[in-house]
Specification:
single chain, about 260 residues, alpha/beta, seven-stranded mixed sheet, three-stranded antiparallel sheet, about 25% helix, about 25% strand, globular, binds S-adenosylmethionine, methyltransferase activity
């Protein structure tokens, strides 16, 4: 059965297998690129990112993937960062599928931050996890649709969807005494926005002893590298994957000893 990625670019995605690596390449050659996978025109590395806006230039459509032996169709929407499937989501989904023995999600409690259209949460759910996918209030309707559409009748656990604005009311809505997760998943949550402090705070809130955080991100800007420095100071981190062509890295983080 076909497996492993976006069906519209199967030759690229189908046989991709990610392996653990300790190697990291310098990012000095990050340049402007057109990412035809997600139809977003990313800007070049900037010292400041005030002028950066993604240029979304396509019509509403369904993206089709095949992961863990299941066909997945994702309904994208308009006018929001959470309306598109970003490269980090494809990379993290591929990583989870390829490393299912190392990262066993079976019967694990999984939380996704900034889930967007829901691809990563769907893959985690199909791998047997009890998943809560979270995002901003405006995003959760399409997120719920995609999760429900792709997991109904296929999964042991019905995925949950919750509104979660980074840094907001975490102790109130997600008190650590009640909400404990085995895995926190994040894909392309770092890009030029003014909530990076709140994002790191939220990662720290959920990543407790016994939790593993997996974060996949396309590295575009100097501000992304700054966040990586802060991320490394906040957690014990390992670079699991680096995809130079896609400029995507996947980090694993656990609480510091
Ligand atoms: C670049 S998109 C990535 C979406 C998805 N993870 C993917 O890789 O396809 C960033 C996501 O973070 C969410 N987000 C941005 N700011 C947020 C905030 N302050 N609180 C919660 N989610 C936020 C957006 O709504 C969006 O879904």
């Amino acid at each position: 059965m076909e497996t492993g990625g976006r069906q519209t670019c199967a030759s690229v995605q189908k046989n991709r297998r990610f392996k653990h690596t300790d190697h990291i390449k310098p990012q000095s050659n990050i340049t402007q690129e057109k990412d035809s996978d997600i139809k977003v025109m990313a800007g070049e590395i900037l010292e400041t990112h005030e002028s950066w806006e993604p240029s979304i230039r396509y019509s509403l459509r369904i993206e089709r993937f095949c992961f863990v032996g299941h066909k997945i169709s994702i309904r994208e929407s308009f006018d929001s960062y959470g309306a598109l499937i970003w490269p980090g989501a494809v990379a993290l989904s591929s990583y989870l599928e390829a490393n299912h023995k190392h990262v066993s999600l079976l019967d694990k409690a999984v939380l996704e931050l900034g889930a967007g259209t829901g691809l990563v949460s769907i893959v985690a759910c199909l791998m047997g996890a009890w998943v809560t996918a979270t995002d901003l209030p405006d995003i959760v309707e399409n997120l719920s649709f995609n999760l429900s559409h792709n997991t109904r009748g296929r999964c042991s656990y019905t995925p949950q969807v919750a509104q979660l604005t980074w840094g907001k009311d975490l102790d109130l809505n997600f008190p650590s005494t009640i909400y404990n997760y085995d895995y926190i998943l994040c894909a392309d949550v770092v890009y030029p926005h003014n909530c990076l402090d709140e994002l790191l705070l939220t990662m720290k809130h959920f990543c407790k002893r016994g939790t593993t955080l997996l974060w996949a991100n396309k590295i575009r800007f100097s501000s992304d590298l700054d966040f990586i420095d802060r991320f490394k100071k906040a957690f014990d981190t390992t670079l699991l994957v680096e995809l130079p062509d896609e400029m995507v890295r996947i980090y694993q983080a656990t609480v510091q000893d």
